[in-house]
User: Which sequence fits this backbone?
């Protein structure tokens, strides 16, 4: 890790946020208040990750200060966490610092993935629809959609990378493997998003019926697997429903052990 991977994560996050700010200003300047309002609304779910970040700071014995609360209110909490990872990696000398950096990196990877699914994914769907159905010549919506796609794919890659680091006797994947994984994730997400956008353009609200059926199938499949990552029954059902919604777009391995059979079933249903 040594700070390179967290630095790339921070750069991707910064680029995606810059693109989102530009498209918000773009809609405001052009007087497209409907798209402006919808784009701003996509920002709101990201506060779930910010609240969790504050709670995890408190659980780790770091009571949130006013400055920390302000950063999270501005949705810069993950930036603060990546800065902490980079600072810890810079002074990494012993196994204690290495474990601390790995723990910090794991926390921010999970939070980034959650934020990407709750905030970046809706933003990507919205901007992709604008480019395809409303303003095909819109350069700024197209760029921000591309940056959102990159950010979402990178969040998935970061989560996979961290999962590899947790395995005993792990080997850090080479840069070429990470690049291939990133391209695969981007291609898979892009095709799913475009398919939903074109379906919405042709059949309007029927897209909710198609997505709903897919969501139910995936949720029931997760329940059948007896996923025990969450202990409480109510939270367990909610977790399966949320992951089932994520499975409309991509596969995330939430169970330990080999996953090739589960991946095969997922793609057989989703193709």
Assistant:
């Amino acid at each position: 890790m040594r700070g390179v991977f967290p630095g790339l994560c921070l750069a991707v996050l910064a680029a995606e946020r810059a693109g989102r700010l530009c498209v918000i200003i773009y809609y405001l300047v052009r007087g497209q208040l409907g798209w402006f309002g919808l784009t701003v609304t996509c920002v709101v779910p990201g506060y779930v990750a910010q609240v969790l970040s504050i709670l995890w700071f408190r659980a780790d014995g770091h009571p949130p200060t006013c400055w920390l609360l302000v950063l999270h209110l501005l949705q810069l909490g993950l930036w603060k966490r990546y800065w902490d990872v980079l600072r810890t990696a810079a002074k990494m000398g012993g196994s204690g610092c290495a474990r601390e950096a790995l723990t910090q990196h794991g926390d921010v990877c999970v939070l980034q993935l959650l934020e990407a699914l709750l905030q970046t994914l809706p933003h990507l769907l919205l901007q992709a629809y604008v480019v395809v159905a409303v303003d095909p010549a819109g350069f700024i919506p197209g760029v921000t959609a591309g940056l959102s796609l990159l950010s979402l794919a990178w969040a998935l890659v970061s989560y996979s990378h961290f999962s590899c680091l947790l395995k005993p006797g792990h080997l850090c994947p080479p840069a070429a493997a990470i690049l291939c994984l990133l391209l695969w994730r981007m291609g898979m997400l892009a095709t799913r998003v475009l398919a939903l956008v074109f379906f919405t353009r042709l059949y309007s609200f029927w897209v909710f019926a198609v997505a709903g059926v897919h969501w139910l199938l995936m949720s029931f499949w997760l329940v059948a697997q007896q996923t025990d990552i969450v202990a409480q029954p109510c939270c367990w059902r909610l977790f399966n429903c949320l992951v089932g919604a994520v499975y409309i777009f991509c596969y995330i391995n939430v169970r330990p052990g080999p996953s090739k059979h589960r991946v095969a079933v997922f793609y057989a249903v989703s193709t």
Remarks:
- The mean pLDDT is 85.
- The radius of gyration is 19 Å.
